[in-house]
């Protein structure tokens, strides 16, 4: 456990190459301050998790990055550009895709219609053929209505949908939530495939076993700030270090 949590500096990138840098980020819902100086960075091609208890501020961090929280201070730099003050559509156009926890699948639309709903915002997005190659379950269900999908298929569709847009940085909020272990494993495989294709991913996750399977590094969030950071190897070597934060 890191007792100097209050004074943790942003992590060293090692290579000096940073895709996203969050520094001293504070954010509010109306008068209620939820983030208190979040600081972490993500290098190109990395998968970094945000882990922490319910209410720690993980979702709010993702929402701040994509511009859904307006009241915020500090810095969020993507490819060197400051996102603070930019609007959600401007941020999306830079190549950042957000997959919210609630998945937001349109139940009256088919898989294919859901897939084609978000506009292509940047060149280089995955084609329909590439998406179905990555998500074979969705190909089989492409004509099915959203309501007919299992939780796992809905989660896959929610991720697949942001891949057409041209996003290269994916923000995934608890993709394993509420899914059976066998389905969680499938989602893990898909995330690994996306990483192998070069996507950079920030994953909010409470399922440590799942996080360990896919991540390079972990950032522990408590009360709206970062209280610890560890590589995946460090987490594997000392699970108790992070369990103590999660209270499990
Ligand atoms: N729309 C909102 N209005 C006011 N307060 C909110 C809102 N959404 C979240 N909060 C509060 O902000 C704090 C951080 O919530 P957040 O959803 O970011 O946490 P989290 O770490 O993602 O946890 P969870 O897994 O429960 O979503 C919590 O105290 C929560 O009650």
Write the topology of this structure.
Layout (H helix, E strand, L loop, with lengths): L19 E10 L2 E11 L4 E5 L6 H8 L6 E7 L2 E2 L5 H6 L2 E4 L11 H5 L12 H7 L1 H5 L10 H13 L5 E5 L7 H16 L3 E5 L3 H7 L2 E6 L2 E7 H6 L1 H8 L2
Parallel strand pairs: 3-8, 3-9, 6-7, 7-8
Antiparallel strand pairs: 1-2, 1-4, 4-5, 9-10
Describe the structure.
By secondary structure, the chain is α/β, with parallel strands linked by helices. It has one domain: P-loop containing nucleotide triphosphate hydrolases (Rossmann fold, 3-Layer(aba) Sandwich), CATH 3.40.50. It is built from 10 helices and 10 strands. The protein has helices at residues 58-65, 88-93, 111-115, 128-134, 136-140, 151-163, 181-196, 208-214, 232-237, 239-246; strands at 20-29, 32-42, 47-51, 72-78, 81-82, 96-99, 169-173, 200-204, 217-222, 225-231. A 6-stranded mixed β-sheet has the order 6-7-8-3-9-10, sandwiched between helices. It binds adenosine-5'-triphosphate (ATP). Residues 29, 32, 34, 52, 54-60 line the site of adenosine-5'-triphosphate.
